[in-house]
């Protein structure tokens, strides 16, 4: 055995008889070794590192060897050095293009790289993280990291992004950053920019937004998320370096060749947009660093590829993101307006860009508002063609679906001309120029529909729908105070418009989209016109009530809820007029004993009825909490008292809706006086004491399905106890005695419960429900809850799983 073999085997020898080391032999002899010896050394060292046997005859492994070998491998600096050397060697032999390789060597390198991608990359990344957190510097490794990010597959890149994020996090404690870290920051930014670039081969698909384009855009949106998180982290650690990098990226992107210009510009703008999330509001407003240079550069640059959908969209999004800078530096307002109003924005040839620009312009107007007053007339004139196109475009196509349908341009105009800073005469002229032609179009359509079948023209219906949306959006810029108090002439114009649009319900009573749009406009006018909308409500409500399908009734009740919440008792007369019709429709279609369950019960029809029932409970609750319960007592409504009470009782006993008990509690307070007082509703007090109290406050709680450990159930229990407290306050011992005599005729209260009560009074027929519980009802609600829960739990133990008290 020569010295080389001895040196290798020393790792596995525990006798100590071999006195040379692998390092010594390699240092002296490696350069003179032949290929076979070098191969043997490589194989042996890799076997040691990989916990493998050296040959078939020995199964001894490094972790079974002497302690000093394991200690040597555990020394941090040595391991880092070894790890870096291995990675660099892999780069030299497998990846680097600086070394010529034969065809066979290239094929071998490809196989090794493929195998590493499948088996080793995640392990290498984990090792990087461990080393990073323990030693905080990886100068030797980072070049390989950057190479992998630029050349490996997506899954690998995500792992490395997490690694780099961890590395950037360690820089937060370094202030200022050293030259080495600044260099790494620059390299990280370069890698991010390279990774977020779109593939030029998808350019046409992304512009047309066809199926392939949508899939690629969705993929990139998801893929970019982690990269942008990394960018923002870098931006917080090194804001100056990041801003300079973005500026240089924008400048170089503009100068790139036409075949790469689109992707380079889009990537640079996306960097600037994403970076904005890491900047504080104060820094945005003041323009810290070179933001004072970057934002004007963004506004003034006209990219040769601005016709690209992706470039145009991210350009406008970026302008809005940095709008707080413009708020403080109003000299740039004309540049912002130019970007939105010319072919870069609202007048962009791509309809998707144009509609998105309308939405973003509305957001910009909200932020700049009063600063735009000097430009109102210019803006208004610039948008005349866009306004005209909106009502004539093919609104039945899929292109106009979604929230960005183009109507936001009317909201933007409304916000501009609805300001009190705009003179009244100008304001009236602007509003009239918009509302008059729109109303004329509606009137002409309705007139033609009367002599034809009104439902045979989908295009005409869609056009009317567009007009309602436009007027609705326009009205959002006008406050109730302006149209009712300071400038009632403006309010009159909206009233006239409402009068025209209500005719749509007469001509098209069964066209659901139009009904929905008109209802939405009524909601808007309630907020805008205030009480001056009252004269128009009877006609509107009458038309909406003409249809009684569950979905339509739900929308109708929602509208009434808004009216009640806004006008309170001021709506009493109108509500008293319509409530009988509502009750007649709803109580005839809702089942009084609940909905079926089991197979076949989850139909669309049943779901619609359930939604109607939930909305009805809300409606009744809104009525009672706004002091309008007297509506139920009118001569025309009294006939619906019994079905309403039966429906509410069933829901209360089955814990279907918490609002139901609140309704009962409010009705008890409204309709029941102190004991021996005059009843507002004959028989209601008896109903509450004899039916509601026993069934809803006792029997339903005794059921084992009422689970006290459930948080929602505890809230319900609180409502039940509150109802008892209110009944005791209103009815005193009348309530308590009946509750005992009917609810506990044979029950024996547990001794522990009796001991809680001093001077317990036995109830009728030997029951021992403590009538002194009145002291709980008269005091703290929490004490009453605790007492009643303890009582219920004890009674459950006695009933042995059966409701013997009924």
Automatic annotation (TrEMBL):
Listed A to Z, the keywords are:
Cytoplasm, Nucleus, RNA-binding, Transport, tRNA-binding
Per UniProt, subcellular location reads as: Nucleus; Cytoplasm
Exportin-T C-terminal domain span: 137-754
Going by the entry's taxonomy, the superkingdom of the source organism is recorded as: Eukaryota
Instruction: Tell me the GO BP annotations in alphabetical order.
Output: tRNA re-export from nucleus
The reply on keyword Nucleus is: yes
Report the InterPro entries cross-referenced here: ARM-like, ARM-type_fold, Exportin-T_C, XPOT
* Role description: tRNA nucleus export receptor which facilitates tRNA translocation across the nuclear pore complex.
Record's protein name: Exportin-T
Organism equals: Actinidia rufa
């Amino acid at each position: 055995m020569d010295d080389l073999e001895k040196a290798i085997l020393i790792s596995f020898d525990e006798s100590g008889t071999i006195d040379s080391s692998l390092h010594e032999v390699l240092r002296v002899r490696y350069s003179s070794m032949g290929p076979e010896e070098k191969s043997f050394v490589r194989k042996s060292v890799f076997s040691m590192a990989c916990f493998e046997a050296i040959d078939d005859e020995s199964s001894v492994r490094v972790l079974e060897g002497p302690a000093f070998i394991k200690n040597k491998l555990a020394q941090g600096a040595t391991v880092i050095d070894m790890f870096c050397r291995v990675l660099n060697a892999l780069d030299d032999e497998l990846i680097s293009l600086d070394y010529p390789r034969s065809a066979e060597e290239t094929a071998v390198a490809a196989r090794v790289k493929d195998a590493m991608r499948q088996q080793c990359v995640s392990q290498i990344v984990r090792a990087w993280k461990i080393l990073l957190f323990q030693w905080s510097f990886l100068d030797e490794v980072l070049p390989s990291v950057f190479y992998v990010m630029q050349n490996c597959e997506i899954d690998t890149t995500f792992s490395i992004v997490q690694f780099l994020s961890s590395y950037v996090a360690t820089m937060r404690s370094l202030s200022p950053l050293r030259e080495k870290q600044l260099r790494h920051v620059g390299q990280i930014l370069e890698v991010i920019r390279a990774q977020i670039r779109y593939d030029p081969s998808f350019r046409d698909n992304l512009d047309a937004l066809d199926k392939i384009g949508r899939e690629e855009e969705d993929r990139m949106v998801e893929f970019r998320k982690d990269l942008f998180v990394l960018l923002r982290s870098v931006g917080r650690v090194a804001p100056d370096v990041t801003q300079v990098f973005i500026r240089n990226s924008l400048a170089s992107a503009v100068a790139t060749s036409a075949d790469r210009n689109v992707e380079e510009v889009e990537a640079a703008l996306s960097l600037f947009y994403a970076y904005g999330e890491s900047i504080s509001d104060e820094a945005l407003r003041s323009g810290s660093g070179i933001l004072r240079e970057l934002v004007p550069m963004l506004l003034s640059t006209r990219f040769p590829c601005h016709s690209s959908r992706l470039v145009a969209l991210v350009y406008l999004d970026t302008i809005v993101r940095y709008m707080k800078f413009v708020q403080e530096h109003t000299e740039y307002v004309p540049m912002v307006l130019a970007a939105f109003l010319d072919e870069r924005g609202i007048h962009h040839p791509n309809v998707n860009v144009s509609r998105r620009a309308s939405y973003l312009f509305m957001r910009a107007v909200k932020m700049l508002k009063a600063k735009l007053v000097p430009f109102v007339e210019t803006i208004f004139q610039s948008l005349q063609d866009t306004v005209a196109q909106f009502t004539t475009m093919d609104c039945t196509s899929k292109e106009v679906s979604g929230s960005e349908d183009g109507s936001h341009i009317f909201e933007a105009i409304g916000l501009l001309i609805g300001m009190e800073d705009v003179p009244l005469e100008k304001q009236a002229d602007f509003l009239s120029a918009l509302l008059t032609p729109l109303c004329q179009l509606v009137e002409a359509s309705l007139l033609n529909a009367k002599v034809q079948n009104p439902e045979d023209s989908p295009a005409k219906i869609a056009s009317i729908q567009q007009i309602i949306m436009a007027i609705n959006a326009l009205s959002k810029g006008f406050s109730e105070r302006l149209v009712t108090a300071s400038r009632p002439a403006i309010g009159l114009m909206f009233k006239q418009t409402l009068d025209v649009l209500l005719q749509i319900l007469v001509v098209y009573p069964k066209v659901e989209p139009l009904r929905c749009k008109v209802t939405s406009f009524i909601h808007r006018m309630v907020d805008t016109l205030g009480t001056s909308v009252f004269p128009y409500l009877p006609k509107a409500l009458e038309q909406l009530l003409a249809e009684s399908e569950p979905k339509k009734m739900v929308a109708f009740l929602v509208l009434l809820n808004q009216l009640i919440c806004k006008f309170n008792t001021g709506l009493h007369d109108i509500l008293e007029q319509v409530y009988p019709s509502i009750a007649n429709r709803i109580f005839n279609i809702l089942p009084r004993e609940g909905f079926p369950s089991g197979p076949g019960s989850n139909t669309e029809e049943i779901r619609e009825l359930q939604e109607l029932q939930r909305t009805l409970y809300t409606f009744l609750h809104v009525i009672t909490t706004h002091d309008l319960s007297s509506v139920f007592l009118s001569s025309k409504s009294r006939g619906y008292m019994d079905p309403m009470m039966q429906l509410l009782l069933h829901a209360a006993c089955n814990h279907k809706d918490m609002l139901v008990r609140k309704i009962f509690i409010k009705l008890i307070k409204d309709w029941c006086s102190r004991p021996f007082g005059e009843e507002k509703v004959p028989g209601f007090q008896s109903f509450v004491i004899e039916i509601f109290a026993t069934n809803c406050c006792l029997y339903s709680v005794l059921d084992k399905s009422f689970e006290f450990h459930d948080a929602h159930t505890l809230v319900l229990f609180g409502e039940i106890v509150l109802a008892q407290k209110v009944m005791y306050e209103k009815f005193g011992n009348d309530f308590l005695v009946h509750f005992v005599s009917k609810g506990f005729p044979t029950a024996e209260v547990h001794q522990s419960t009796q001991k809680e009560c001093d001077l317990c009074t036995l109830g009728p027929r030997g029951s021992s429900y403590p009538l002194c519980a009145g002291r709980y009802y008269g005091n703290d609600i929490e004490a009453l809850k605790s007492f009643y829960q303890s009582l219920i739990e004890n009674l459950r133990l006695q009933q042995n799983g059966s409701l013997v008290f009924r």
